[in-house]
Amino acid sequence: MIIIVDTNIAFSAILNTKSIIGDLILNSNTIFQFWSCHYLLREIDKHWEKLKRISKLDDNDILESQRLIYKNIDFIDEGQIPKKYRVQAYDLVKDIDLNDMAFVALNEYQKSVLWTGDKVLISGLKEIGYDRAITTDEMIKLRNRLEKQ
User: Fold this and answer.
1) pTM for this one?
2) Over the stretch 45-99, which tens digit does the pLDDT of each residue have?
3) Separation between Cα atoms, residue 83 and residue 81, nearest integer Å
4) What is the CATH number of the domain that holds 51?
5) Burial class, 84, CB count within 10 angstroms (exposed 0-12 / middle 13-18 / buried 19+)
6) What is the number of domains present in the chain?
C-alpha cells in the first residue's frame, strides 16, 4: 500500500526516530511503501534551525535521523506528476492550504493515502468529502490491521 508522507510527518520522525511516527516509517516497509515530493526536502531544509532548536541535537545527529527517515521514502519531483492531478489538487486545497498541493497531487496520481498531522488539512479535506487523508492514529490502526492479515 502506498502512503504519501507530508512534511510535518517527516519533521516529527526526524525529530525523534524512536517515536511512533519514526517507528511507523522505519518499521513498516513490509506493509507500506512511503512516497513524498521533493517539496518535502526543501521544507525540511527551510526549517533546519527549528529542528535543531526543538530536538536539541547537533547537525550530525539530525543528519543521521534524516538519512534513516529518507531512506524509507521514495521521492518524486512534482514536475513528474501529470498536470491533471496538479489541477485536481489545486481545486481540493485552494481554500485550505496551497502549501499542501504537491502532496495531494501525488496522492491523486498514486491513488494512495495521504498521511498528515495537519488537522486543518484533514478537516478541510473531509469537509469537501475527500477521504484519502489519515492521521497518525489511523496509520497505527491500519498497520495493526494489515499486520494481522
Assistant:
1) 0.94
2) 999 999 999 999 999 999 999 999 999 999 999 999 999 999 999 999 999 999 9
3) 6
4) 3.40.50.1010
5) exposed
6) 1
